[in-house]
TrEMBL record:
The chain crosses the membrane at residues 12-33. Coiled coil: none annotated. PANTHER family: LEGUME LECTIN DOMAIN-CONTAINING PROTEIN, VESICULAR MANNOSE-BINDING LECTIN. Keywords: Membrane, Transmembrane, Transmembrane helix. This is Legume lectin domain-containing protein. It comes from the Eukaryota.
Amino acid sequence: MEKDNQRLNQAFFAVLCNIYTRNAIFSYLPLFVLTTKSVNMISAHFETVDEAKEVKMRSVRGRYDTVPSFRLTSQEQLQTGTIWSKKKIRVLSGFTATFRFQVTPVNGASGDGLAFVIQNAPNGNRTYHKSDGSSMGYAGIPNSVAIEFDTYEYGGDPNNNHISIQTKGKQPNDWRHQYSIGWGTPSTRIDNGAIHESIITYDTKSHPQPTITVSMNGEIIINNLKYDLGSIGLDNGTAFIGFSAATGYSAQFHRVLSCEILN
Ligand SMILES: *[C@@H]1O[C@H](CO)[C@@H](O)[C@H](O)[C@H]1NC(C)=O
Ligand SMILES: *[C@@H]1O[C@H](CO)[C@@H](O)[C@H](O)[C@H]1NC(C)=O
């Protein structure tokens, strides 16, 4: 089963996450010209063999397309899924991550949510913390910061539809709201089954201190929060990036459909 997972996951990584690195020589040209593209491999852990699947769904342009996606969890209870870049990615000098995701609940309460995670944990791209429910798969991971899309109110959460930046620096991360360093509530529900696009910007140039900005569907949820990524303990400015998600006794599909990092 482990082996099947590897095969399936690796078949899909290439479409999941493209890394674009700024080429200084061409920096005066428009973005799509100045970037050099290198596809970054992803290694992943899922609980069941069919977590990484091609699924048929409506694309943002309104056509029915077969969209390759990573399904981090199924709609079963107590699932945890994570997916990481194969290599460490330069993050300290600033980056923009753009990704599309979809959270599809079953009837009634839905839980728990997914997270975009930057981590430099000792286990690297093999990091996996089976941590269901509110932990969303990132709790317990040291040297990490998680931007969670939380659809279940628990542990002091402000509501059941918020985006929060969770970190304990070099310590194992914690899902409880007291470890939020910034949060906000999007006007649309995260778990409405629609495809959402989020943009996370780590801006090291516009302000005296680096800041992080998070938007969902063009709406800014966390705006220029002062935050130094170096506080998680990076490796010469680099870290693994990826996604995690979990279900608790309430469950839902968590899918990531695309991901681009510009650094
Ligand atoms: C994980 O990362 C290490 C070093 O950072 C690399 O050598 C290895 O190939 C990666 N493993 C996978 C499965 O991608
Ligand atoms: C650290 O990062 C800088 C900037 O990218 C690079 O020039 C240097 O070679 C790196 N040092 C090591 C030891 O990897």
